[in-house]
Design goal:
Blueprint: E1 2-6, H1 11-22, E2 26-31, E3 42-45, H2 51-60, E4 65-68, H3 75-80, H4 82-103, E5 107-112, H5 134-149, E6 154-158, E7 160-161, H6 171-180, E8 185-188, E9 192-193, E10 196-197, H7 198-210, E11 215-218, E12 225-226, H8 227-237, E13 245-248, H9 268-274, H10 281-293, H11 296-301
Parallel strand pairs: 1-2, 1-4, 2-3, 4-5, 5-6, 6-11, 7-10, 8-13
Antiparallel strand pairs: 9-12
Helix pairs in contact: 1-7, 4-5, 6-8
């Protein structure tokens, strides 16, 4: 399959492009500000805000499927740049989805668990959304734009972690790096989520495409935990000191933009559609640790131009 991945230098985009290439797919990755070197897939530099030029580049790659990973993914960055967040997180996905429909090319849009307000958790795909931050509102607007332009698209609501180009993009990396340096940390006991290891997410996205799925799915781990517990599990898996992590409540510090607390999502719709269980947190952390042993983080960081 010829796969086109936007945001190919980001945490998901890079790992997805690497994973898909290893699976035998031909990948073209689009990047903007961060250039890649010596990666095992084709790279094109594109500004998605220049819609016509971007679509020309994408069409020239003749993709069999498009996975749109590019976004303003930082909650605080989106809060400071709401207009840019709306352009990249909402308007650009709509343009790409419309073009994919016109070309009759399957389209996957990466969304977020943050479209919910986190008041109760256990959310189904059909539950009412209530985003709290600029980031969450623009990502929900992106979902709506994609659905309107391309009803056959896949919208994947997810939350993920893994090794990145910078070594600083995921919560898991932050825990490993800080704990390994002996730095004391804080972990939120009242912030619940269903983190999925990024290569498990990549595998599921490719499987969803192969199965011809359409519509909205919660693509997350089937179990959940607090961010404090996540840090403790990482510490124990890596042989680091979990006592360096102090449990706190979200209200104990000012985190800037509003954040939802209980973002536990129910992924049963996807499990049923694919006919198998989804990767657990324990399984994901085992793979995350195995990659560290293989010096995979150093391999990714060597791709920085």
């Amino acid at each position: 399959m010829r796969l086109l991945v936007t945001g190919a230098s980001g945490l998901l985009g890079l790992n997805l492009s690497m994973f898909a290439t290893q699976q035998g797919h031909t990948v073209t990755g689009l990047v903007h500000s961060r250039v890649l070197r010596d990666v095992p897939f084709a790279v094109r530099k594109v500004d998605l805000m220049q819609t016509d030029l971007a679509l020309d580049v994408i069409e020239s790659a003749q993709p069999d499927a498009i996975i749109h990973c590019a976004a303003i993914a930082s909650i605080n960055a989106a809060e400071m740049q709401p207009e840019l967040a709306m352009l990249l997180n909402a308007e650009a996905p709509g343009h790409l989805a419309e073009a994919a429909a016109r070309w009759d090319v399957p389209f996957v849009h990466i969304s977020t668990d943050a479209v919910f307000d986190g008041q109760r958790g256990g959310y189904l795909e059909t539950d009412p959304t209530k985003p709290l931050s600029v980031y969450a509102r623009t990502k929900l607007a992106g979902e709506e734009a994609v659905s309107a332009a391309n009803p056959a698209a896949i919208i994947a609501r997810t939350v993920f972690y893994g090794w990145s180009l910078s070594g600083q993009r995921s919560l898991a990396e932050f825990f490993v790096t800080s704990l390994a340096a002996g730095q004391p940390l804080k972990g939120f006991t009242d912030t619940l989520f269903c983190p999925l290891y990024v290569e498990d997410l990549a595998s599921l996205l490719l499987e969803m495409l192969a199965a011809g799925l359409t519509g909205t799915y919660h693509v997350v781990s089937p179990d959940h935990l607090s961010k404090y517990d996540f840090g403790v599990r990482i510490a124990k898996r890596f042989g680091l000191n979990p006592d360096l992590i102090t449990p706190i409540k979200t209200a104990d510090i000012d985190r800037g933009a509003a954040r939802s607390l209980n973002l536990t999502l129910n992924p049963d719709k996807l499990r049923t559609a694919l006919g198998h269980d989804l990767p657990t947190v324990v399984e994901g952390l085992d793979r995350f640790y195995a990659r560290w042993q293989e010096e995979y983080p150093q391999k990714l960081q060597a791709f920085k131009a």
